[in-house]
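User: Can you help me understand a structure? I only have the sequence.
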Amino acid sequence: GVFMYNHLQQKVRNAEALAQKYKQQQEALSAQLQVVYEHRSRLERSLQKERGEHKKTKEDFLVYKLEAQEALNKEKQDSMNRYGALSSQHKILKNQHEDVKKQLLDLQLQHNSLKLEHRKALETHSQKYAQLQQEKDSEVTNLQDTVFKLREESKLLRKAHQEVHSQLLSAQ
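Assistant: Let's start by predicting it. Here is the structure, written out as tokens:
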């Protein structure tokens, strides 16, 4: 009877040690899961910040475009007024009139150049946004896979804990 009692006590101590080990593993997994959640939260905040900055940049560009358009319209109007005034002195000031036309052409070329730069900047932003979106999607997928694996491990740990508990009850 004493031998049997000592044997059962040894089994109980072993089972308690195993339960403690499983509890520590579960705590470690919980800590890792918390780290994953915090990382995901930081990524989401970073994405929101990038979206805000992109929106501000886009609004600033639209304001700049409007101002440039107004300046160009003003230049065109000034050129037309000058042309009207110069037409009465056409013979004397013909060379000056040609200079104004050249200036207008230069402004149009500059305007076209600005439009091309805008298009390139927009394409660059679109590509960067698509890349960030793809990276975010990849990270979310990885996080979901990690959560799934951690849940599966938690299920296995619970099942093993339940089996140990059942064995202890059977042993008692």
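Now, to help you interpret it: The radius of gyration is 37 Å. Helices lie at 2-87, 94-171. Let me know which part you'd like to focus on.
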